[in-house]
Backbone:
């Protein structure tokens, strides 16, 4: 009996370790990885993706909320507890979208768990469909987090392209083509905002030229 219990505990520990290694965290609030020593098991660095020939490197359409929740980190915000995110439908529309709802006047962001290995001179196009419903002064933009060889962050917004906040409650495509500068070894796409409002995101894509 004790041997069976030991085997179950070992399997459970290995499963939990693998979950942490993949960066999966179903709930930061209730996660055991908040506590010592388990918090050292939770992977925060992104999963690296090496692109091959030109074409689509990353694409997210958010049609599968459960899988999407495993592929994206929880929203980060400078003011804790004032920004929520998730996957939902807009009334009268069938597709599922990623949303950010902010009661904060400071900045916040969402990002996928994958990062892309790059070389200086590589050219990429980053685009996403967004729908903005700001309350007062607010901004939303696409950005890239750049890291060096040691995976240290060089810039949290090496590339930045803002959405048109005047286009209230209507879909728009935000797009930016950029060249990777010297010293950047990997990039991770992000969608960031500042200010109060509701923001919908759909069809996020990174393409190598």
Residues:
């Amino acid at each position: 009996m004790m041997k069976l219990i030991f085997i179950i505990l070992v399997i459970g520990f290995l499963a939990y370790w693998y979950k942490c290694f993949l960066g999966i965290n179903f709930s930061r609030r209730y996660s055991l990885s908040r506590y010592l020593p388990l918090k050292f098991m939770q992977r925060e660095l992104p999963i690296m993706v090496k692109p091959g020939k030109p074409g689509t490197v990353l694409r997210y359409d958010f049609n599968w909320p459960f899988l999407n929740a495993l592929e994206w980190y929880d929203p980060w915000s400078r003011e804790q507890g004032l920004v929520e995110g998730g996957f939902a439908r807009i009334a009268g529309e069938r597709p599922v979208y990623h949303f950010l709802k902010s009661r904060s006047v400071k900045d916040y962001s969402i990002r996928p768990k994958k990062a892309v290995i790059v070389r200086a001179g590589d050219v990429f196009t980053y685009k996403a469909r967004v729908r903005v419903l700001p309350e007062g002064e607010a901004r939303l933009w696409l950005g890239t987090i750049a890291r060096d060889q040691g995976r240290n962050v060089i810039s949290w917004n090496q590339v930045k392209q803002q959405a048109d906040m005047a286009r209230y409650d209507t879909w728009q495509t935000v797009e930016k083509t950029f060249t990777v500068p010297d010293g950047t070894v990997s990039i991770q796409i992000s969608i960031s905002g500042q200010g109060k409002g509701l923001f919908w995101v759909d069809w996020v894509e990174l393409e190598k030229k």
The first helix runs from residue 2 to 21. Confidence is low (pLDDT under 50) at residues 38-42. The chain has two domains: 1-44, 45-208.
